[in-house]
Specification:
alpha/beta, Aspartate Aminotransferase, domain 1, seven-stranded mixed sheet, binds pyridoxal-5'-phosphate
Length: 391
Amino acid sequence: MKDTRYDFESVIDRKGTNSLKWDFFGDDLPMWVADMDFSVAPAIQKAVMKRASHPVFGYTVVPDELFDAYIGWWDRRYGFRMSREEMAYSIGVMPSISSMIRCLTDVGDEILIQSPVYHVFYYVIEDNGRKVLENELIYENGEYRIDFDDLDEKLSKVKMMILCNPHNPIGKIWSREDLARIDELCKSHGVILISDEIHCDLTDPGVKYNPFMPSDNVVTCLSPSKSFNIAGFQSSVIHTKNKELLEAIKNQMHIDNSDSCNVFAVTAVMAAYNDSEDWLEELKEVLYENKQTVKEFLASELPVVKLVECDATYLLWLDCSALRMSSKALSGFLRQNQGLFLSAGSDFGRNGDDFLRMNIACPPELLSEGLMKLKAGVIALNNINRLSKNI
Ligand SMILES: Cc1ncc(COP(=O)(O)O)c(C=O)c1O
């Protein structure tokens, strides 16, 4: 491990903090839900503690400085220029997408997503009485790409497409060419494109994601919650150049009560974007090292499981097709046999069924434990299969 200024090695006991990851699913080693087992950047903790030392926690408004923090971050890092009037605050990316679905589409409409994809896209569409239309990504020679002919055909049937950029769970940064083709197709079919860019900062060191071009039919969702491990504060913004769209969405978010602000979120978000950039850069190195550890481990110790190469997110997509088992059964077996909790690939769509998703945003000690359990689980599975063949 390289020298780091910040502590990414200590194992932090998160039990007893009402953690979704650690407190609600028994004693399994949780390598599923997308939050990190690292402490936040010291600047964030300090700012939140300072605010907590003031003993009144009443209703809070979103200051312009919070929008300035977003604007500065995207301008400085990605050359993506936003202005305050083009943005709106929301308590989260999924609440914003839910509001957009309600105000920009009708009950019964189909909405396009690219599977395998973040499972909550399915729920938010279906829970709002809309239908999922899948543009299945093509998996060939260990890589994913977009089926543009299918996309073109399916965009003619929808009013909205939700893009995951970079893509969870496959960890892919969409290229400028891919984004330009998607943009062109959405425009030609009059489709509103929602670009969920929540994972955008978590790229391999030296690699940058490509923000979606801010044209008139595009709404971008941004949030520091993944990058800085502050999902519990529930905070995000949307950005669009289209004034009419923005007004409609703001109005719906107001109806949905999703535009209000958590007293600590304001403080945490500003400390993240304004004072924690060096922490993020170190984090990216640590995640990259973890990824290399997994890659080397699988290649030498468990070649039956293949890592799908990726350049973003801390979520690894493991090709388990050689095990010839449904992902639900496989993840269930690993939980039962080894106490290892990985996400079943089928959670992210039918075409995810040959895969498991593994969250590697944890100290090396937990990562090694997870890998040992994975190997032991696969060996146990093979032994059972061998035995049952002999019966
Ligand atoms: C692609 C994607 N979008 C949105 C979210 C959740 O965002 P929020 O907590 O702001 O609703 C996640 C969380 O894992 C995600 O992976």
